[in-house]
Amino acid sequence: MSVETITLGCRLNYAESETIARTAPADEDWIVVNSCAVTNEAVRQTRQAIRRAHRQRPEAQIMVTGCAAELEPKAFATLPGVSRVIGNARKLKGLAANDVMPPVPAGFMGHVRSFVAIQTGCDHRCTFCSIWQARGPSRSYSFEMIRDAVARELDRGAREIVLTGVDITDYEDGLGKLCQRLLHSQPRLKRLRLSSLDSIEIDDALLELIAGEPRLMPHFHLSLQAGDDMILKRMKRRHSRADAVRTVDRIRSLRADATIGADLIAGFPTETEDMALNSLKLIEDCSVVAAHIFPFSPRPETPAAQMPQLGREVVKARAARLRETAAEQRRRWLDGLVGSTQPVLIENNGKGHSDNFAPVAIADSKRGDGGPARITSCEGDLLQAVWA
After folding, report:
1. pLDDT beyond 70 at 99
2. pLDDT score recorded for residue 139
3. Averaged pLDDT, 319-339
4. Strand, helix or coil at 101?
5. pLDDT (tens digit, 9 = 90+) per residue, 115-171?
6. What is the pTM of this model?
7. Which residue, among 317, 136, 304, has the nearest Cα to 233 in the 3D structure?
8. N or C: which end of the chain has fewer CB within 10 A?
9. 107 and 114 Cβ atoms separated by less than 8 Å
10. What is the pLDDT at residue 94?
11. How far apart are CA 294 and CA 325, in angstroms?
C-alpha cells in the first residue's frame, strides 16, 4: 500500500502534498491529485493527470484536491477512479490517519530543498485571477508555527528552506521581519529562499537582508505580469512599469549577484502590439533570466473574461515571442557564468542549482553535496561544473 502524490501548480501545493502523504494511513492505497486552476490549461492538465493515474493504477483510490477541485468539485467527482474531492480548507485532513496535523504545510522537494508555507489566500482581486476564490482571504501563520515547521524540516535533513504561499509579501508582520526572525532563531538554517514576490510589497526589512545576509539566496521571482501601464491597470495590478524597473534596479544595486525571475502574461484582453512590445522589452529592462510565460486564458467569473478577447493565434504568437526573447536572455546569462565559481547545492542525480538559481550538473555528485564549484561549460539550459 502507498500514497502517491501528483502535484500541479505552485510550491504551496507541493508543501501541502508532502504533508498529506506523510499523514495518510500506511495501509491504504491512494493517489492524491493536488490541482491547479491558475489557467484553463492547468485545469485541463489536472483532468489528464487523473485519467492517466486511473489507467496506470486502477486499483488505487483517487483523492482530488487543490484550487481546481475547489472551484469545480462536481466536474472532478464524476471522473473514473475518483473517490473523494476535497476543497482547500480541508485538504490537509483529507487522508489524515488521526487528528494530529502539522500546523504548517511543509515538505521536501528532492529531499534537499523543503517548502514551508507562511500564509495562504489572497486579498487582491487581479482581474485575470480566480485563485482568491479558491484559496479565500489572506491568512498568515504565526512566527512560532513557521519557526517550528522550519526546525522540523531541518531535523529531517533539509539543506535549503523555501518560504512559500499564495502571496508571501502580504505576510501580516512583514516578510522581511519574518525572515530576520527566522534566520536569528535558526542558526542551522544556512540557505533561505523565497518563492514568488509581489514587487510593490517588498519591504525595507527585506531589502536590508538582500543587501547584507548571505544566507538569503540571491534569486528573486517577481509577479510582474505585464510591462505596459494600461494593461497593468486593466489587470488591477498595484504597480506601474516604472515601479517594477525601479524595484529590480534597487535589488541589483544592493546585491551584485542577484538574479531576477518573473511571471508574464501574453495576450491579455485589449493588448495592442505596442503594449505587447512594452512587455517584451521589460524582460531586458528588468534583466529577467527565469521567465514564466503564460498565454492568457479567460478564467470563469473573472472580470478579464468579460473584456474584449484577442484571437487565440495572436495570444499564442505573443507568448512564443516572449519565450524566445526570455530564452535568449537566459542563455546569455548562463554563458556568462562559464569560468566563474559559484556556490552549488546538489538536489538529485548529480544536478542542482547555484545560489542564484542557475541549473548545474556535477559528475559523480550525490544528493545534498554542496560547496563552491567551477563552471566549465554550458550545454543547453544546464551548466556543467567541477567542485572547486
Report:
1. no
2. 96
3. 98
4. coil
5. 999 999 999 999 999 999 999 999 999 999 999 999 999 999 999 999 999 999 999
6. 0.94
7. 304
8. N
9. yes
10. 83
11. 14
Q: What is the DSSP letter of 311?
A: P
Q: Give the model confidence (pLDDT) of 68-80 as tens digits.
A: 999 999 999 999 9
Q: How many CA atoms lie within 13 A of 202 on its CB side?
A: 25
Mean pLDDT in residue range 8-26: 89
Cell triple for residue 303?
A: 472580470
Give the span between the Cα atoms of 175 and 167, in whole angstroms: 10
The amino acid that residue 231 corresponds to is: I
Grid coordinates representing 50? 487523473
Q: Tell me the per-residue pLDDT of 284-306, one tens digit each, with 9 for 90 and over.
A: 999 999 999 999 999 999 999 99
Rg (CA), the chain: 21
Three cell numbers written together for 9: 501548480
Q: Which among 352, 355, 357 is positioned nearest to 384, based on CA atoms?
A: 352
For residues 129 and 3, which has the higher predicted lDDT (pLDDT)?
129
Q: What span, in angstroms and rounded, lies between the C-alpha atoms of 386 and 384? A: 7
Residue 101 to residue 97: CA distance in whole angstroms: 9
Quickly count: other Cβ atoms within 10 Å of residue 78's Cβ.
8
In angstroms, the CA 338 to CA 386 distance is: 12
Do 351 and 380 form a contact (C-beta atoms < 8 A)? no
pLDDT for 101 beyond 80: no
The label of the residue with cell 491568512 reads 139
Rounded Cα distance between 331 and 337, Å, is: 10
Could you please report the per-residue DSSP string of 215-226?
TB-SEEEEEEE-
For residue 35 the three cell numbers come to 490541482
Alpha-carbon span 197 to 200, nearest angstrom: 9
Closest of 24, 31, 79 to residue 56, by C-alpha: 31
User: What is the Cα–Cα distance from 260 to 244, expressed in whole angstroms?
Assistant: 11
44, 91 in Cβ contact below 8 A? no
Q: What is the mean pLDDT of the chain?
A: 95
Q: What is the CB-side half-sphere exposure of residue 146 using CA atoms within 13 A?
A: 27
Question: Residue 105 and residue 250: Cα distance in Å, rounded?
Answer: 32
* Whether the Cβ atoms of residue 180 and residue 205 lie closer than 8 Å to each other: yes
| Nine-digit cell string for 39 | 489557467
CB neighbour list of residue 323: distance below 8 Å, 6 or more residues apart: 291, 293
* Alpha carbon separation from 150 to 179, 181, 254, 294 (Å, rounded): 12, 12, 27, 32
d(C-alpha 49, C-alpha 6), whole Å: 8
